[in-house]
Amino acid sequence: MAVDVVVIDARHCADAKAVQASIEAVTAAERFFLLVCPDDPRWDAVLDAGQSYEALKCVLRPWSVDVVRSILDASGLGDRDAEQVVELTGGLPWLIQHLGPSAEAEQAIAGRDALDGAEVTAFVLGLLDGCSPAVADTALAIAVGYPVAGHPALPGAPADDAAAQELLVRSVDSAGLLGADGTLPPLIRDCLIRYAPPHRLQRWREQLIEDMVRTGEDLGAVAADLVAQGVRDPRVVQALVERAVRAVDAQSPDHEHAARLLQLCLSVRDRDPRVQLALAHLGLVTGDIGGAARAIDQILLSGEVTVPPGLVPLGLEIACAQDLPHRAADLIRWVAARDPKAAAHPAVAISRYAVGDRRGADAILDRADVRQDSVDGYSQLLAQGVRTSIEDATASLPQLVLAVEASSAGSTSLTDSAVGLVALWGLHAGDLPLVHSVIRSAQHQGALGKIARQRLCLLSAWAAMSSGRLEEAESAISDVGDVAPRDRVWLTALRVGLARRADDPLALRSAWAAAREVVLRHPASLGQLLPLGELGLVAARMRDFDLVRAQWGDALALLRDLGEPPLWATPFHWYGVQVALQQDDPRALAPHASVLARAAQKWEHAAVLSAAARTWVRVRARDVDPDEVERTVRRMSVGGLAWDAARLAAHGAAATTDRHASARLLECARNTLPRSVVTASEVPHGVSHGVETEADVGLQLTQREWQVAELVVSGRTYKQVGEILYLSPKTIEHHVARIRRRSGAASRSELLHLLLMAVRQRDGGGPDAAPSRHGERRTAGVSYRHL
User: Fold this and answer.
1) Type and span of the H or E element at 783
2) Widest CA span of the chain, in angstroms?
3) To 10 degrees, the CA torsion angle through 60, 65, 68, 72?
4) What's the pLDDT band for 265 if we cut at 50, 70, 90?
5) Average pLDDT rounded to a whole number, residues 684-705
6) Cα of 192 vs its chain's centroid, Å
7) Main-chain dihedrals φ then ψ at residue 29, nearest 5 degrees
8) What digits encode the pLDDT tens for the residues 420-462?
9) Angstrom distance (rounded) from CA 284 to CA 296
């Protein structure tokens, strides 16, 4: 049944009494009516009158995300992000409907500049024109930065009159300009900022700044928005810079937000040293070393006559991450020319120790004042720890740990210096549990930047490699990504070191080919001795030692200049012993053995490696004392060199003519390396936890026989298989003979064919499956890289 309804549209009517009279006239004629009016306090009396006629009141509100999603789906726009649409439009139905399916709407929703010429622009400005001057001015005031609620109070009503302030907000809301959260949606705000009369906007911007200064509010809260609008008031710019610097220095910084603030700062103060320092700091934390270095260069080229606070430690940290000592030297000269006292910063002492200038570093620390600044005080703790590590290795550890505690307490925002140094201490001292402990603690705190995380990952991988956990080390570096220049030499040395320990000639040749270029780019320094030692040993094995001879000479000179400190010199000279043995050059071995012998009088780890060097020389001369070898192997294993220890035992087993001694040393080698622990789900198909395992081709082999079979089909000789498994070639021959008897193979070629099929099936494929990746074959969950 049709019903006549009278629509009373009072949205743009200012006379409430006239509207009320219309309602009375309609009801007197006993007709239905629909009243449309703003949700405004001025209309409360009219609404109350409507309620007296048993009317239903329906207040139109912004749409929720669920409603917007359903509307988008119904309109064939289900690919749009409903949450993003609501965020940009405030859920205002008219705004969402005006956006519609147009390309401009797609760009607006994507956050791009799409309002030029859009229908929504004309509609918003039309709404503004249809509002009273008070409502329009309030909307513009909110657009430039006035808060809807809080301080400073909105202009247009007394600040201390809460009711009047609320009336202003409700007036803007009733005009359809406020979103679900009670603020101007981004699309409306941007439209007003860009197209409203400039003189009206400028009036409210100036008023906002004065009101905030007068009431003591933080200008930084609106500084970014005002600068983006073109405001260049010095007070606003200063507030923006301070806020950007705080954003970078925060304990848990939002890097994207900090970067946006700094980019705004650059648009108004590109030569401000604080902005450039903040950019450098942000680059160091996020891994943008090139950007960090450019920011430091901007300061050095800016003509500054004073040294900005924080420049020295930050600039040296960046130079260290770049592994460019000459950049550190340039920075120190620049600082010294302007402020000699600033050039005596503890961070400068650390950089001098790193290149072997002990006298210059000691002089800086001897005349250094007690640093009150948190970063400077942290640097002083770190520098004293490095100094003590050169004089007394054991006494230096507490000082370095104290520096770690200072950094974790928030007194510094640099990257991994203290944690990295403690980890280096542990690697050089053979204290691998310390390495894992300090790294896990730092990672647990979660405040590390990208470069710090990557570096600690590499140091942890080095500890795993040294202890023989090769698969763990390889896993740690597999996803490390593009590292800082300083850490490329570590990553490269890890790759060649893992290939060397896996006894995989093809992988080693490939890794060394990739390493050759990296080796030439990195100078010798105190923190790079371990990777340089590994690269030198691999170079000797590849008969390419001339490539690293210059860097090795620099490293030896650096250690001599520092007085051959036992902590730092011991591992490098141990590598020197191994290089000499690899080259079969007794004259080259003598200097390294001599340094180890002298260091053994002061440092237990040096005593272990000095004894290991003597034992290895005797083994090479086939003078094998099983008791001495076992004793040395145990000490080396405890000292963090389990893989080297197992290798020494295997060489001793191969060198002795005593069968019982050989078997004893081979067992010692096997027991020295960590064993893999696997769950049932990790055991390949066809392999059980028991003694026997059976493949589809019918072979029934023990776990040891499977290990032998895999290595034999990979093309290795009995001697090579024995070296990997720490068994004698004769034992390998017996294993192969038993496998042949069990398989029923009539010839060696038939046996190899059967073994190849069985290995492929066991690795997860069928008989025609491709072989597993060279050097990563697994048997019962045990990788040969572990053996």
Assistant:
1) strand 782-783
2) 124
3) 180
4) very high
5) 50
6) 40
7) -85, 5
8) 999 999 999 999 999 999 998 888 876 677 888 899 999 999 9
9) 11
Pairing of strands 700-702, 778-779: unpaired
Range in 289-298, 450-459, 498-507, 776-785 with the lowest mean pLDDT: 776-785
- The sign of the dihedral angle between the CA atoms of 207, 208, 211, 214 is negative
Task: Give the CB-side neighbour count of residue 396, counting CA atoms within 13 A.
Answer: 26
**Given 3-state DSSP classes, what are the helix, strand and coil percentages for the chain, each rounded to the nearest 5?**
70, 5, 30
Distance CA 448, CA 248 (A): 13
Q: Provide the token pair at 38.
A: 């703003």
How many other CB atoms are there within 10 angstroms of residue 384's CB atom? Answer: 20
Answer yes or no: is pLDDT of 649 > 80. Answer: yes
Torsion of CA 390, 396, 400, 401, to 10 degrees: 160
Instruction: Please state whether 132 falls in left (phi above 0), alpha (psi between -120 and 50) or beta.
Output: beta
Q: Is the pLDDT of residue 324 over 80?
A: yes
Helix (H) or strand (E) holding 19: helix 16-28
Rounded to whole angstroms, how far apart are CA atoms 275 and 296? 10
Q: Do 223 and 236 contact (CB within 8 A), yes or no?
A: yes
The pTM score is 0.73
For the segment 127-144, the average pLDDT, to the nearest whole number, is 82
3-class DSSP state of 555: helix
Pairing mode, strands 778-779 and 782-783: antiparallel
696 within 8 A of 688, measured Cβ to Cβ? no
- Which one, of 529, 535, 534, lies nearest residue 513 by Cα? 535
Q: How many CB atoms lie within 10 A of CB 580?
A: 21
Q: Read off the amino acid at residue 482.
A: D
C-alpha span between 655 and 636 (Å, rounded): 20
Quickly count: other Cβ atoms within 10 Å of residue 670's Cβ: 16
Contact 674, 782 (CB under 8 A): no
**Cβ 168 vs Cβ 138: under 8 Å:** yes
Alpha helices in 522-565 (DSSP H): 529-541, 549-561
Q: For residue 774, is pLDDT > 80?
A: no
Residues 6+ apart with CB under 8 A from 491: 458, 477, 480, 483
CA distances from 86 to 70, 145, 257, 355, 762 (A): 13, 21, 22, 58, 55
